[in-house]
């Protein structure tokens, strides 16, 4: 494995009394695309937010480029984020700005480039996602897949070293889904960036990523290369990859037995 | 838990929540002030908000001011002519508007028109993760989104209040002088002689600035603190309008008490 760009050791996180992540150990190698997979509510988006410094861990260590993120001042955190790009689940495009201005936003905020240079960079980024022709459209005029591609162009506008993808395939049709998956792989390689993709779409992800971590109930329950994952006999990984209805993941949220609940009358 | 315990528990919990929220609002206000530099370094951000809060509120402010002035003219003339002082109509209209109705009614209209719009915009930006996206791009949303809207509101409010007052005085003149026939010379001369700049005009301006700060702060805070769902944003907008209206009326009483303490 190459040098890790993100290193996580013994990380715990809780929202109040609700434990979300327990004892996470993870290494995200430099220049590689790593997927974090797991069912809804398993804590994978929380992990992404921890990497981005939006929340702080209770215990454990989380280093990005060798530096402990939880110890950053706001200034240092922003300095780190300038070297980071993030694609949100539904794009999070600025609705009052055009496609062009959305992609130009990080360049205008963080560089002193003349408008002509910004124009060239924006058009190149839009060309890379196939939407140069849509530069003057507003976000409301875009389809879900197009909006995600514009958000992808915006997230790589500053040529980041680390790119975080939060559920990039959610709600996309098969064609858009395949386009986004290919673009994620292509942009990661072109920029030499370290990419982390949080997702529960197995087949699309396994086709493009270098390494996979599986999470369940706030813990890492399996990991490996896509080839290893496909042939894994680990019960959780097998259930997830083969979409089995029965296995270590239970259908019911933990609760008292139905008999007890019904006999309790007014109790819920 | 019996009824009495539950009663006190609900009161206690609500009180703690409200005090906590008040503390959060105070911290938010100081953070907002600390992040205001960019608003003035990049005038385009401020101009955009001055347009959204000020220019787009002009129609409702001018039309309402005109109608308030028309009513003041009618009501004032009806009362004054009983005592044979209908020439004092100009003073009555001007003082009512400059001291009270201008800042208060303009403030209430501003809260409904611009305040609700600011809360909706900020709340929806939060619900659609635009604020988080900005934060993750190392752009502070307090500096880039919240502060320009706050200062846009603060600067718009006194100007809107002045325009409301001007439209109201025009309405009073229209009814009194043009339709009823009050002497025009007396109308303007008495107004000029009896409206004091410091005691009346300046105090009115101070009120409108205070209302502008209150309404703008409530609007941006409610948007920023909104629960990021459709229902959460709709509740936040309602809270902006209700809290702003109460804040304006309560602050008006407090300010009036200080301003006219010598009377």
Write up what this structure looks like.
The complex is a heterodimer of chains A (268) and B (263). Chain A has 268 residues and is α/β, with parallel strands linked by helices. Chain A has ten helices and ten strands. Chain A has helices at 44-51, 74-81, 99-110, 115-128, 144-155, 174-191, 202-208, 226-230, 235-241, 258-263, and strands at residues 4-15, 18-29, 33-38, 59-64, 67-68, 84-87, 162-166, 194-199, 211-216, 219-224. In chain A, a hairpin with a 2-residue loop joins strand 4 and strand 5 (67-68). The N and C termini of chain A lie far apart (50 Å). The model of chain A has no long low-confidence stretch (mean pLDDT 89). With 263 residues, chain B is an all-alpha fold. Helices cover 86% and strands 0% of the residues of chain B. Chain B is built from ten helices and no strands. Chain B has helices at residues 3-34, 37-41, 43-53, 58-80, 89-127, 130-136, 141-180, 184-194, 197-224, 230-259. In chain B, helix 5 runs antiparallel to helix 10. The longest helix of chain B has 40 residues, at 141-180. Chain B starts with a helix and ends with a helix. Classes of the chains: A alpha/beta (268), B mainly alpha (263).
